[in-house]
């Protein structure tokens, strides 16, 4: 669990450290709000995304399953600022072993809810798929804007970072990979 009391105390310290007054009207409840927010946006530190997976047997469907444009919010581990975008999750079931579509988005959500790197988020989602339903192939592509590159530092609003993680046949077979990428771009 997120230690909310500890977060509260730390946020109060930060407010003092930046030279503001944590006891002024507008900030009085801020440490508590931030603690509740961290409990929500870092919940993935305390959950195993594999637990969501429920497997169905769907005859011999050994074709692409793609859920695209899954809205994704995560926090960059270097600056603790959000990166925001979409994830596309694909797999090709082995012997009809499929999972509920919503579970793909639940896996993304859980893996996103911790201090992350976009690369790691992308590959962790692919690895959860491989570990749980052992598909013939899996791919995760993510496009995101990092606020640490937008509102500070290099200040490049609008720049997007694209990462992919390819597994199994989607990695090894060029034709399958091309088909997957075409569907994602569509
Ligand atoms: N690879 C990768 N880098 C990230 C991600 N999120 C943020 N970063 C980068 O992390 C790097 C941290 O660089 P540092 O030089 O340690 O920190 P900094 O001085 O604040 O860097 P600047 O952002 O360039 O001002 C920056 O280049 C960020 O753009 C991510 O998801 N993946
Ligand atoms: Zn950052």
From TrEMBL:
InterPro entries: GTP-CH-I_C/QueF, GTP-CH-I_N, GTP_CycHdrlase_I, GTP_CycHdrlase_I_CS, GTP_CycHdrlase_I_dom. Residues 8-184 form the GTP cyclohydrolase I domain. NCBIfam families: folE (TIGR00063), PRK09347.1-2 (NF006825), PRK09347.1-3 (NF006826). Zn(2+) binds at residues 76, 79, 148. One of its GO terms (cellular component) is cytoplasm. The keyword Zinc applies. Keywords: GTP-binding, Hydrolase, Metal-binding, Nucleotide-binding, One-carbon metabolism, Zinc. Homopolymer. One of its GO terms (biological process) is one-carbon metabolic process. The keyword Lyase does not apply. Belongs to the GTP cyclohydrolase I family. Its EC number is 3.5.4.16. This is GTP cyclohydrolase 1. Pathway: Cofactor biosynthesis; 7,8-dihydroneopterin triphosphate biosynthesis; 7,8-dihydroneopterin triphosphate from GTP: step 1/1. GO terms for molecular function: GTP binding; GTP cyclohydrolase I activity; zinc ion binding. Pfam families: GTP_cyclohydroI. SUPFAM superfamilies: Tetrahydrobiopterin biosynthesis enzymes-like. It comes from Pseudobacteroides cellulosolvens ATCC 35603 = DSM 2933. It catalyses: GTP + H2O = 7,8-dihydroneopterin 3'-triphosphate + formate + H(+).
């Amino acid at each position: 669990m997120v230690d909310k009391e500890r977060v509260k105390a730390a946020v109060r310290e930060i407010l003092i450290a930046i030279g503001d007054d944590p006891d002024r009207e507008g900030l009085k409840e801020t440490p508590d709000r931030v603690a509740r927010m961290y409990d929500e946006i870092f919940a993935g530190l305390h959950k195993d995304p594999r637990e969501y997976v429920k497997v169905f047997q769907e005859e011999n469907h050994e074709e692409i399953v793609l859920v695209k444009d899954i809205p994704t919010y995560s926090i960059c581990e270097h600056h603790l600022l959000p990166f925001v975008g979409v994830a596309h999750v694909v797999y090709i079931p082995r012997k009809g072993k499929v999972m509920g579509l919503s579970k793909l988005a639940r896996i993304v959500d859980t893996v996103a809810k911790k201090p992350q790197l976009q690369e790691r988020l992308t590959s962790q989602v692919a690895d959860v798929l491989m570990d749980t339903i052992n598909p013939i192939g899996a791919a995760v592509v993510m496009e995101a804007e990092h606020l640490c590159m937008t509102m500070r530092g290099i200040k490049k609003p609008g720049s997007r970072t694209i990462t992919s993680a390819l597994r199994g046949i989607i990695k090894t077979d060029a034709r399958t990979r091309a088909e997957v990428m075409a569907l994602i771009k569509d």
